[in-house]
UniProtKB/TrEMBL annotation:
This is Uncharacterized membrane protein YidH, DUF202 family. GO terms for cellular component: endomembrane system. Residues 7-72 form the DUF202 domain. It comes from Tessaracoccus bendigoensis DSM 12906. It is found in: Endomembrane system. Pfam families: DUF202.
Length: 112
């Protein structure tokens, strides 16, 4: 995206970087989880890894689009900014990952 930043404090840019770190953390966390829980979940661990990696990629792409929209909106002087759908999706992904982790822990305890 070309052009000078809207905010001299670069708040939208910092927010974009935070979303990128979140997307990267979700992807790497899913891959690490699949490696750690491979014995307990078997082939399902790779399904979790793929789903988590895809979720991270989608969140990263979405955060870039959200930043571009915010940048254009602020430059144009409009007050209509992005909705809260991206944070909701991230919260649901993290909640789902937590449920899978609890189920994997319970499955590991039941197997021993």
């Amino acid at each position: 995206m070309s052009g000078a930043p809207f905010d001299p404090g670069l708040q939208p840019e910092r927010t974009r970087l935070a979303w990128q770190r979140t997307a990267l953390s979700i992807s790497i966390g899913a891959l690490a989880f699949s490696r750690i829980e491979a014995d307990a979940l078997g082939p399902w661990s790779w399904v979790c890894a793929v789903v988590g990696a895809v979720a991270g990629i989608v969140i990263g792409y979405w955060s870039r689009a959200r930043y571009n929209y915010t940048h254009r909106t602020l430059k144009a002087g409009s007050a209509k900014l992005a909705d809260g759908l991206l944070p909701l999706v991230v919260a649901l992904v993290v909640f789902g990952a937590g449920i899978v982790a609890v189920m994997a822990a319970l499955a590991g305890n039941a197997a021993t």
